[in-house]
Structure formats: C-alpha cells, structure tokens
C-alpha cells in the first residue's frame, strides 16, 4: 500500500526513533511510505532547500496518492493536525498512535469519524501489534 506517515517536524523531533521504527516496519512489510522524509534525521536540512509552498504541494500530492495514513500524534504539531484533517476529508483510513502519557489534542482523542482509529502504545512491541492489526484490516 501507499502510506502517508505523518509525524512532527517543527513541533519537535523527540519522537524520531518511533517514526523510524514505523517507517522501517512498513517498508519491511512491502509498503511504500511516500512521506519517508518524516523519519529522516536530517529532514530539517533537506527541507530547508525547498520553499514552504514546495513542501506543502509535495506533501498534499503524497496525500492524494496515499491509500491510508499513519500519524504519530504524541507531540503537538500543527502540520500533523492539518494532515490528519486533510486525510479525513479525503476519506482514507487513519491510524493515530501516541504514548500513553502524551498530552494529545481532543481534536484527535475526541474524533468520532469512522475512518479514524486512535491507539496508545508503550513500546515498539505494542506498536508493532497495532500496526499489524491496522494493515490487516484492509
Ligand atoms: O519541513 C516540513 N516538511 C514536511 O513534510 N512537513 C509535513 C510532514 C509532517 O508530517 C508534518 C509536520 O508538521 P510540523 O512541522 O508542523 O510539525 O508536516 C512539515 C514541515 C515543516 O513544517
């Protein structure tokens, strides 16, 4: 599947190892992560070579192509919120994952849209089970 991975960039990079774990898991299971740059540790440097509108247009293009979204929502990121909302409008399945102690927005936790699944995970083992179940649902 073509998957959009959404994770914080300007909202903070503390969850980078988790984005890398998700991206690696998806790729090793044969999926294409269109927005793989979210899991790249030099993303700010490479993105600084692009204009803001180039970044926006590229990501919205990736979203148009994507069959589902996986969003790590532990950090408060305007971009992740915008992407989740855009995916809701597009009508694709969205899995939002977060650490149990994260201060996740009510716009995610309280979202009753039938395409949105929100799950918390403690570690990579938990997360892998959640990802496997989500992908098996297609
Ligand atoms: O440089 C960027 N490149 C990029 O692809 N994004 C997209 C992908 C991420 O899932 C999301 C992160 O948003 P934010 O930077 O507000 O945390 O927005 C966001 C930025 C910077 O806002």
Automatic annotation (TrEMBL):
GO MF term (any one): 5-hydroxymethyl-dUMP N-hydrolase activity
Membrane-spanning segments: none
Stored InterPro entries: 2'-dNMP_N-hydrolase, DNPH1, Nucleoside_deoxyribTrfase
Chemical reaction(s) catalysed: a purine 2'-deoxyribonucleoside 5'-phosphate + H2O = a purine nucleobase + 2-deoxy-D-ribose 5-phosphate; a pyrimidine 2'-deoxyribonucleoside 5'-phosphate + H2O = a pyrimidine nucleobase + 2-deoxy-D-ribose 5-phosphate; 5-hydroxymethyl-dUMP + H2O = 5-hydroxymethyluracil + 2-deoxy-D-ribose 5-phosphate
Known EC number: 3.2.2.-
One Pfam assignment: Nuc_deoxyrib_tr
HAMAP family for this protein: Nuc_phosphate_hydrolase
Protein name: Putative 2'-deoxynucleoside 5'-phosphate N-hydrolase 1
């Amino acid at each position: 599947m073509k998957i959009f991975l959404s994770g914080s960039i300007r909202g903070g990079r503390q969850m980078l190892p988790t984005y890398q774990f998700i991206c690696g898991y998806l790729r090793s299971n044969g999926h294409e992560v269109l927005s793989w740059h979210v899991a790249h540790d030099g993303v700010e440097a490479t993105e600084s070579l692009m204009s803001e509108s180039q970044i926006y247009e590229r990501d919205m293009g990736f979203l148009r192509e994507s069959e589902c979204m996986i969003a790590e929502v532990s950090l408060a990121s305007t971009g992740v919120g915008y992407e989740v909302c855009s995916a809701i409008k597009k009508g694709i399945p969205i899995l939002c994952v977060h650490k149990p102690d994260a201060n996740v927005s009510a716009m995610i936790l309280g979202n009753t849209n039938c395409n949105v699944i929100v799950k918390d995970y403690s570690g990579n083992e938990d997360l892998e089970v959640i990802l496997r179940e989500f992908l098996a649902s297609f």
